[in-house]
Predict the structure.
Amino acid sequence: MKNLQEATERICEIKGGLVALDALIPALLEALPQTAHADLRRLFEAHAEAARTALLHAPISEHAIAAFERDVRRTNAVLDGIGSGSMPPQRAAVEAVLLTTTRVRTFDGLRAMTNASGFFFQRDERLYLVTSLHVLRDEASCHFPGRIEVELHDDAHDLTRCTSLSILLYRNGMPGWRQGGDSAGPVDVAVVEINREALPASCVLRAFTPAHLPLAGAEIEVGSSLAIVGFPLGFHDTVHHLPVVRQAAVASAFGIRFQGQGQFLTDARTHRGSSGAPVLLRDAGASAAGGDELPWKLLGVHSMRMDMSHRDLLRDESLGLNCAWYADILLALTEPAQAGIAA
């Protein structure tokens, strides 16, 4: 390879070829007559063992061997399913809530800028990425990225398979996101509509819907246990590309606008990079019914840490409180007449 860019392009070509093979192999197996399945299984095992022997005696990375063994197991599972007349049922590899949230990286051209969090929200047939407005534009810190990248899983049962989706933030000089405000001023929440045609065919994600928003007047007690799912300081499971969860609690009267703004407080240890994370309350009713794979209520969108400006930095610890904007702002931001698609 002449340079790093050519090497990167070659890696992308190889990944694309592997995805094509993943689509081709099951199709070929299903097209074979039933009488050939036993012979195919026997021949595959023999060839796999020969390849395994060659790999174990070659100067090759352990990662390559692990990938080989994983794909052998997957192919055997396909063969077993076809031989029995139906594909074997597979259990989800991870809780669905961890597939609702994605790492958001901002860029100025090719220059990486910041890490943040975001989550998916679906209304009717439209899919949106939700994050904090200051992730996309923040005049106070002179933060003006031109595009973002989000990570998407390619396989529900092999979470190591992941790809990135690049989203331009401006079209013809106009912002490609929607933001809102209220009587108190701007709300630090933004949504970007995602063109489903731009998603990989094998994309695996989960999205909250309006049904996950708490009903008006819902009684949520101060001190209720919450979960904030995100990427603090960009930290996450880099092998399986999954977020981490911080425990939190409702720290102000829920349903009342804290200091007159459309937000409430949470008590949690958070860091930069968590901006845009969903603030969730376990839905006991949905859990008991067992019918919803996302038994959570979406209460808010985490924005930033709150502190006292006149705190004595030597004698007083940080308050450990955070601002979360009420999630019902998403109903206004995803009105069909206001939707704009980003690709």
